[in-house]
């Protein structure tokens, strides 16, 4: 295979870094995954992302020099002109230029985008929403990412700040979000939100949970999606109540988004969805349909991400192949 046909995509998440190598058809040929270091600097994070990318390339006996297209996703709005990352809330960083850092470290042009945007982009091009023209994406992980493709164009907006769907305020004076505001949907539907709510239930109601004690305690701030999924499937009342409430709130937020863009498809993805699968759909769908305005629910497809944990990184490869013109 000609290496000119290959692209490297790297996804910086709140707890993990994913990297993929794809071909021109957006098929995943190799992957790698490492842990995200908390309380790190932009330079160290960029190096960790590059190192994860190198691991994926090594699976095919390739190096960075062999790849023509490199893209990276950040959990932050990214200015499409300057490459500045504005608010990486869940990493405790803001106003840094990862584009310049990548250029210094690699000597190559690395195309940057927001994680929710790029996850939605991959599903639109060749995943769960292929064939649709207007698509909404929600990605439930450490935070809640979102993206919008409107009439076949990724919506970026002023300074790259469009489609920050996780920070739509759905309850005045609601839960405090990591961004500093109250009532954002991310404060209800994300792993950070789930952990806070579970701890509150345990403290206030003295309720027990099936989450493993070596993975979760009252000092935890995050947890792996697979443990939430297992507890949910086992009928853990605390975990079920917390996740179901998050799904209700997400259904309300999605219905509100539909009143603005009227999509043909909503894609649900991210680590939580990849672990839970269809189990997350019934509560979300019921809430969504009961708050939807104007459009019959049958007109809007609700689908799980086809790319799973790789969706965002695949989107980064598409961004790079198209040199940011998406």
Describe the structure.
There is one protein chain. This protein has nine helices and twelve strands. The protein has 326 residues and is an alpha/beta fold. A hairpin with a 2-residue loop joins strand 9 (144-150) and strand 10. It is globular, with a radius of gyration of 19 Å.
| Top CATH class of the largest domain | Alpha Beta
Fourth-level CATH superfamily of the largest domain: ATPase, nucleotide binding domain
User: Strand percentage, roughly?
Assistant: 15-25%
Which fold name is given in CATH as the topology of the largest domain?
Nucleotidyltransferase, domain 5
Residues in helix, %? 25-40%
Number of strands: 12
The CATH architecture assignment of the largest domain turns out to be 2-Layer Sandwich
Number of domains: 2
Going across the biggest sheet, name each strand in turn.
3-2-1-4-7
Distance between the termini: 26 Å
Gist?
This protein is of the alpha/beta class. It is built from 9 helices and 12 strands. Strand 1 (7-12) and strand 2 form a beta hairpin.
Question: What labels describe this entry?
Answer:
326 residues; Nucleotidyltransferase, domain 5; five-stranded mixed beta sheet; 20% strand; globular
Topology:
Layout: E1 7-12, E2 16-22, E3 28-35, H1 42-58, E4 69-74, E5 84-88, E6 93-97, H2 98-106, E7 111-114, H3 115-126, E8 135-140, E9 144-150, E10 153-154, H4 191-205, H5 225-233, H6 237-261, E11 265-269, H7 271-276, H8 281-291, E12 301-304, H9 311-321
Parallel strand pairs: 1-4, 4-7, 8-11, 11-12
Antiparallel strand pairs: 1-2, 2-3, 5-6, 8-9, 9-10
